[in-house]
Amino acid sequence: MPTSRLLRMSPKVVSVRSSISQDNLVLPAFTPTIAWDVFRRPRLGHSDDFILVRTTWRSDLDSEKVRTPVERLRHSRPLQPTIELNLLSVPSAELEQLSKELAELKLPIGAASHSYGIDGTFYEIAIDQSSVYSSSAKCRLSWWHTPPAQWPGVLEWIKRAAIIFDASAQSVPSIPLRIRPIDDTASKE
């Protein structure tokens, strides 16, 4: 499964009524991939609440599980990805402002990319993903290394978002949440 799909479909359910205001994927070639998701939670009688969730696929840990044929035999089949989920502390108003700025960007469709690579980092931003269970969005942008020159607002937005996201992640301990298949022993009897 492609990494971007793995992170889009990972269990990031904050609440059933939440929607993803923005989904920011960082997909490096050789280090763990990260999704920064800003969720919008409606609140009855109040303005919406915005929260930040970081999801990391610990590919570094998972690659060790298949390093040798003997090591691979020590792990159950199918091999489940090691996913870390962290709810990060960022003021709701900051996340709301970031979401608003991103949604207001004016970009030409089909901007020509002047660079492409095999190694390096791919990026993806999804705007207004209607459901935590869906991979469809109003708009999805992706690029390798740097956004196309025709998207200068995207690069500036990414720099602002990265400062906020990275600062919030500094104080969070990394505790992996292993996603396992449901063991329904009653159905086997």
Secondary structure elements and pairings:
Blueprint (H helix, E strand, L loop, with lengths): L2 H6 L10 E10 L4 E9 L7 E9 L1 H6 L4 H5 L8 E7 L3 H12 L17 E9 L9 E6 L7 H18 L7 E2 L6 H4 L1
Number of helices: 6
Class based on secondary structure composition and strand pairing: alpha+beta
User: Helicity, in percent?
Assistant: 25-40%
- Rounded mean pLDDT is 77
Overall shape: it is: globular
Structurally, how many domains make up the residues?
A: 1
Record the strand order, biggest sheet: 6-5-1-2-3-4-7
- What does the radius of gyration come to? 18 Å
Helix/strand order, N-terminal first: HEEEHHEHEEHEH
- Describe the sheet with the most strands: 7 strands, antiparallel
Overall number of strands: 7
Walk me through this protein's architecture.
The model is unreliable at 176-189 (pLDDT under 50). The chain has helices at 3-8, 59-64, 69-73, 92-103, 152-169, 185-188; strands spanning 19-28, 33-41, 49-57, 82-88, 121-129, 139-144, 177-178. The two termini are 32 Å apart. It is an alpha+beta fold. α4 (92-103) runs antiparallel to α5 (152-169). Strands 6-5-1-2-3-4-7 form a 7-stranded antiparallel sheet. It has one domain (3-182). The protein contains 6 helices and 7 strands; from the N terminus they run αβββααβαββαβα.
